[in-house]
Specification:
about 170 residues; single chain; about 55% helix; 2 strands
């Protein structure tokens, strides 16, 4: 049977659906299907590579679309959270300004409560004035200085620049 571009695309679509059914978990069945496809690639090299790249691009585009939708949903959730916070602040002010006692409705108990847990710490001096026994020093590598030294030819026995890696380009 000759593989037309249409049939190759159908094969790739079936492989994509197989991955989707497994929620992206690559099981032996999926690996076997992809291994068989890769073994056939020599018989119709250009068309198969084109289809393979098309599937990669489809997953990338779907991923981008889902990320965009996730950002949109996140923005909507943030707006809902801001509205809830605004309403909560207004209700807090009503209870506080009117000295209202807790109220019990058919669904909620509403009232002002004292927060528990550790009390908030308030520092009344500048950070530089705090005695050393109350200061924690955290070391952070200056990677830009290390990179600059290595690129200028300075030998550092404890650091080096890694070799560039390769990536697959699909344009």
């Amino acid at each position: 049977m000759t593989n037309t571009i249409y049939s190759i695309c159908n094969d790739m679509t079936a492989l994509m659906e197989l991955l989707d059914e497994k929620d992206g978990i690559v099981e032996q069945e999926s690996l076997d299907a992809f291994n068989a496809f890769e073994a056939e690639i020599q018989t119709d090299f250009v068309n198969k590579l084109d289809s393979y790249a098309a599937v990669i691009q489809e997953f990338e585009m779907r991923s981008d679309n889902r990320k965009t939708e996730a950002r949109r949903m996140s923005e909507l959730a943030k707006k809902d959270e801001e509205r809830a916070d605004m309403l909560r602040r207004r209700l807090f002010a009503l209870f506080q300004n009117n000295n209202w006692q807790p109220v019990e409705t058919s669904r909620f108990k509403i009232g002002l409560m004292v927060n528990g847990g550790k009390r908030k710490l308030q520092i009344h001096i500048d950070d530089e004035q705090i005695p050393n026994e109350y200061v924690e020093v955290i070391r952070v590598n200056n990677t830009e200085a290390i990179r600059s030294a290595l690129e200028s030819g300075t030998e550092l026995g404890w650091a080096s620049l890694a070799e560039r890696t390769k990536r697959l380009s699909i344009r």
